[in-house]
Write a structure and sequence with these properties.
The protein has 202 residues and is an alpha+beta fold. It folds into two domains: 163 residues, Gcn5-related N-acetyltransferase (GNAT) (Aminopeptidase, 3-Layer(aba) Sandwich); 32 residues, no CATH class. The two termini are 34 Å apart.
Amino acid sequence: MPSFTPDSHLDLLFAPELIPSDVQAQLGSDLHMRPLAKDDLYRSHLSVLRVLTSTPELTEEQYTQAFNRLKSCPNTYFTLVIINRATDQVVGVGSVFMEQKFTRGLGVVGHIEDIAVDKSVQGRKLGLRIIQALTTISERVGSYKTILNCSDANIPFYEKCGFQKKENEMARYHNTSSNAAATTAALLPSSLSERPLHTPRL
């Protein structure tokens, strides 16, 4: 059975000190919250995301490229995971990314995305703990507000997390098939075609 890997042995996306200690303390002794690590591909990161939406298989090279792209933008992308200490596997995940504005006195907005909890640990309020941690990180790095999108069914949950319903979301999907993605990549300059294409949230 894999042994728990301490943070100091990992290449992490951001400084673990940004994760609030009070949230960490509420997880339980069998769980640990930390930033995403470069090798979390092998700790079931993508399997947990499949609880949320369609998630493709990635090679180690693809996963590493995506991780390095996120890390190359300091104070912008904050993906955290919850680790089962007994198995050293990811059982929860969530992200917040920071958007620089020209309005609001050059303010910054935090966008929460991709909250997912493995079925084996659902019912332990881990989704709430992830939201609390991401909101705190967003505030600590200087955002004036934190926003997210959710289904109508999840509105009560996010209201309990301190969020308010504001306006509506509109979406227009692009590059939703492999053929469309290949065609778009062929038409773009190489510097753009190397960027990851967006996949719709289902």
